[in-house]
Amino acid sequence: MEVKKYAARDAWGLLEVVQIGSEITLQFGNHTAQSGWDPAKPSELAFGYYQALCVGLVLHAAPQRLNLYGLGGGVLARYLLEYTELSLHVLDLRPQLAEIARQYFGLNTEHPRLNLHFADISQADALAVIPPCDVIWIDLFDEQGMVPIPNRSLAALAEQLDETGVLCINIWRNALNEVTDITRALAHFFDAIPITIHVPDRYNSVLCYRKTAWTTNDLMRIHGRLDNFSPALQATLREALSWVSPLPHKRSR
């Protein structure tokens, strides 16, 4: 049975919180769940792409700071604060999401390791207040689909990472034009070949970029880093690591 727990409009449209069974989801005026969690199972991530994004943590040798673009219901931020020691800076367009995340998705918006920012990612100047980090997660969708990010903003994101930093972006593979646009744009600032994680039975993929080229040795190291994380995150990662695609073979010249 579906129960609507919250509905309101802000400057960008409808925001709804819906409960189906034990799962609570955030929707932007359609039937697509933008965020979801089961409060009875806080250590489990409801969506496969959440798990795939977590692979970015073991692609870095020792992540301490993460910048998240796209708060949504705050599910990813809550999970990271509870099951890692990472410091988080989170940016989203819609300030009303902070209270929704607090009330319905368990996010402690006053957590000392959490910094919330509300601004438009397409305005590169707004990104100047976000500090450097080790890992970037991009999970930006609206009721139309993937949110476009202009090159000037991608350049600002690239500035937040050093040569070992990892940028992970959640995409919808069926949005071919948008995927082509974002991958071509990212290739201006990062190595053109990302590590690709296809979420089973979904159109979501997570692409993980670095300024230097990924190697087979990078993939071999990630299993040895699992013990650096909490048991809950280890369980999440063990499943998601099986979705990582092999790197393409480089053609000999």
Mind explaining what this structure looks like?
The chain is of the alpha/beta class and 253 residues long. It has a single domain, classed as Vaccinia Virus protein VP39 (Rossmann fold, 3-Layer(aba) Sandwich). It has seven helices and 13 strands. The protein has a seven-stranded mixed β-sheet with strand order 7-6-5-8-11-13-12, sandwiched between helices. Helix 1 packs across helix 7. The longest helix is centred in the N-terminal third of the chain and has 11 residues. The model has no long low-confidence stretch (mean pLDDT 93).
Strand-helix topology:
Blueprint: E1 2-10, E2 13-20, E3 23-27, E4 33-37, H1 48-58, E5 65-69, H2 75-83, E6 87-92, H3 96-104, E7 114-118, E8 135-138, E9 141-142, E10 145-146, H4 151-159, E11 166-172, H5 176-186, E12 195-198, E13 204-209, H6 216-221, H7 231-241
Parallel strand pairs: 5-6, 5-8, 6-7, 8-11
Antiparallel strand pairs: 1-2, 2-3, 3-4, 9-10, 11-13, 12-13
Helix pairs in contact: 1-7
